[in-house]
Amino acid sequence: MKAAVVREVGDADALKLETDFPTPKMGPGQVIVKNEYAGINFIDTYHRKGLYPRDLPFIGGQEGGGTVAAVSDEAAAEGIKVGDRVAYSVFGSYAEYTAVPAAKLLPVPDAVGLDVATSCVVQGMTAHYLTSSAHADLIKEGEWCLIHGVGGGTCQWAAQMAKLRGFKVIGTVSKGKASIAEGLGCDELIALDEVPGASFEDYESFDIVERVKEVTDGEGVKCVIDGIGKSTMDISIDSLARRGIFVSFGNASGAVPAFPVLRLIGKSAYVTRPKLLDYTVDREELVWRAGEIFGWLQEGKLNVSVDTEFPLEEAAEGHKYLEAGKSKGKVLYKI
Fold it and tell me: Of 76, 214, 217, 263, which has the fewest beta carbons less than 10 angstroms from its beta carbon?
């Protein structure tokens, strides 16, 4: 089958199309999905570069959508049928076919396109747990939340979901993506200069902490959602209100460096470094999160921006596009 494969870790060109990669075999409790789309996410670039190590060689990706092509007896007993429209998150989605445990499948409503459904599996689900769970209820309805990079994929979702949760939102965004961010409902938008060729903004071009204090009457925010990493760590911690929480979930500007726990004593602050797998621990939690997201989509409460699609034959170009900060929404491979 056709697949985008990493045999040696490295830059985007390490991701190469192969046309004769073995088609996966279906195991007990699994289905085979014929992929129509695969999502491109920053975590895929971390795997490709070796920042998050995986056994070599591997098919890239962990987000896909398509139709069920084959069903195990166990999956059939759960009511899954050939032809069902599904989305999922398991490794190996940059391929024509993926073996997926039935428990990982998300049934896609007819009213939701497979491109949009695929877009929601990692970015949408990540935004959901960031705004509903990772903050450990340390932020309440009506309180302030700071979300970095709301012009990008995951945090476009997160800004909208934070508003749906009743939080007041301060968003940071590059000036080049401000027009997109203006439609997300943020209560305050801080537009920053761009870093040429990078996937993040120039966080030294504006005094974000001072503006946060002005907007929040000197209190700070109860939660910071930060996928930028190295460039925003100090800003995020310094923007917190008393007993606020710094939710660090990404490394767009580089990994967050180690820091002493005493750094948090000024506001008795909390910090967490969550990942999606720990917030979709069983099918009940997975279906609950997906159900809320698909429901909001059908009700028109969420706007999803699919920025562009690359053919799988241009696998390396998709990663280069994402890492260069060009995306203004979800980036997909069309299989």
Answer: 217
The residues near 313 (Cβ < 8 Å, ≥ 6 apart) are 17
**What is the rounded distance in angstroms from the CA atom of residue 52 to the CA atom of residue 46?**
6
Convert the pLDDT of each residue in 133-169 to its tens digit. 999 999 999 999 999 999 888 999 999 999 999 999 9
On whether the CB atoms of residues 247 and 155 are closer than 8 A, the answer is no
Report how far residue 186's alpha carbon sits from residue 171's, in angstroms, rounded to the nearest whole number.
6
122/158 Cα distance (integer angstroms): 12
The backbone region for 27, taken as left when phi is positive above 0, alpha when psi lies in -120 to 50, beta otherwise, is: beta
d(CA 89, CA 81): 19
Alpha helices in the chain (DSSP H): 42-49, 73-77, 114-119, 125-132, 153-164, 178-181, 208-215, 233-238, 283-298, 315-323
Q: Which of 217, 224, 194 is nearest to 206 (CA)?
A: 194
Handedness of CA 98, 100, 104, 109 (dihedral sign): positive
Instruction: Identify whether the C-beta of residue 303 lies closer than 8 Å to the C-beta of residue 183.
Output: yes
